[in-house]
């Protein structure tokens, strides 16, 4: 049985230690800023990105991973006798899944599975970690794919954006009525639902929004003893760390992760975003 290589994309923004420890392969999405082009997480890291974004007059744009990027990686891994599972950003947010499927056509008989996670950032990261740990333990391609599918309903995420204008400008949320909250200093809490970003509710003040996110996680996990928790942020590290500390105290998770919102995703959520994700066993 072939070893399984797990691929994900840069929007997961998994910490470097997990990528190395679990042998995960990462393909970058692309950031376009004026006349410059950057590979997400490679040519530009989150720390530098958010410093620049706060001062920028031009908002970057983003694009999916190219077909060529996937073709090159698939070719190399197949030559090393791997089966391949690519777990990628929701097709409701990016065309990256389509790029991978186009690349897959160049290898019609090869053991390659392309899976639309319907997630992004650390929620997708949890799915990737699950599959990668199974692959390391000797699971087959079919078994790794089945685990990725099975864990999806056990994953959830809530995030607070500081200003809805970034989601609106990027076309990720387009209901004008939902923009009214920004003028009223209301902090919107969002979630990923069926692969798309949706408004859950709006709360007055950041402090109340962060507390409400924890309450919603508690409602979702309903005392589940085997839960993993991640906090991730866009230049709001203190709040993200405090959120994770409170979640750790309340939920006693079996694993915690903290990281940034990737530059490509941060382009659409804007600075000041704070997120919490969970995965139940």
Describe this structure in words.
This protein is α/β, with parallel strands linked by helices and 281 residues long. The chain folds into two domains: 150 residues, Rossmann fold (3-Layer(aba) Sandwich); 127 residues, Hypothetical Protein Tm841, Chain: A,domain 3, CATH 3.30.1180. 40% of the residues lie in helices and 27% in strands. It is built from eleven helices and 13 strands. β11, α10 and β12 form a beta-alpha-beta unit.
What would a concise description of this structure say?
The chain is an alpha/beta fold and 281 residues long. It has 11 helices and 13 strands.
The run of helices and strands is EHEEEHEHEHEHHEHHEEHEHEHE
> What integer value in Å does the Rg equal?
18 Å
Distance between the termini: 27 Å
Structural class determined from secondary elements = alpha/beta
Shape: globular
Oligomer: single chain
Mind summarizing the main beta sheet?
A: 6 strands, mixed
Overall mean pLDDT: 91
Q: Give me the number of helical elements.
A: 11
CATH topology of the largest domain: Rossmann fold
Strand arrangement across the biggest beta sheet: 10-9-8-13-11-12
How many domain units?
2
Strand percentage lies at 25-35%
Total count of strands? 13
Query: What is the class of the largest domain in the CATH system?
Result: Alpha Beta
**What's the CATH architecture name of the largest domain?**
3-Layer(aba) Sandwich
The low-pLDDT segments are 174-181
Q: Considering DSSP H and I runs of 4 or more, what fraction of the residues is helical?
A: 40-55%
Question: Which structural traits does this protein have?
Answer:
single chain; 281 residues; alpha/beta; Rossmann fold; Hypothetical Protein Tm841, Chain: A,domain 3; 2 domains; 6-stranded mixed β-sheet; 4-stranded parallel β-sheet; 11 helices; 27% strand
